[in-house]
UniProtKB/TrEMBL annotation:
Domain of life: Eukaryota
Family: Belongs to the major facilitator superfamily. Proton-dependent oligopeptide transporter (POT/PTR) (TC 2.A.17) family.
Transmembrane as UniProt keyword: yes
Listed name of the protein: Uncharacterized protein
SUPFAM superfamilies: MFS general substrate transporter (SSF103473)
Subcellular location: Membrane
One of the Pfam families matching this protein, by short name: PTR2
Coiled coil: none
A single GO molecular function term of this UniProt record: transmembrane transporter activity
GO cellular component terms given for this protein: membrane
Amino acid sequence: NLVLFSKSVLRQANAQAANTFSMWMGAVYLFSLIGAFISDSYLGRYLTCLIFQALLTIGLVACSLITQHFLLHPHGCGTIEQQCDPHSGFETTIFFVSIYLVALGNGAAEPALATFGADQFDEEDPEESKSKT
């Protein structure tokens, strides 16, 4: 999870790692409000899902690539006794940009995705209308 990655790879203290996770989760929930507003007011559900799912995919790919770089190519180490050098500010920035792209894509698309399930029921049909509640 993000706390363990922050502690072990980014070398954050416990409180800082927990804060990183809390801020990321807060961003996901904040982006869901923004996504619902954009979906209802401007783009519609389908286009909102399409755009923000694409951003989610870009964020996941970027996150996968940068974490692979962190884990497979650590700086200045190679033995058990030698501790690795800290990662550069650029690498850490790319990591945080990628996880916040994931937060944006997931959070903003989620409200629109949830309503697609309700659209599967026909409100005119009494059986399906009963199943909707």
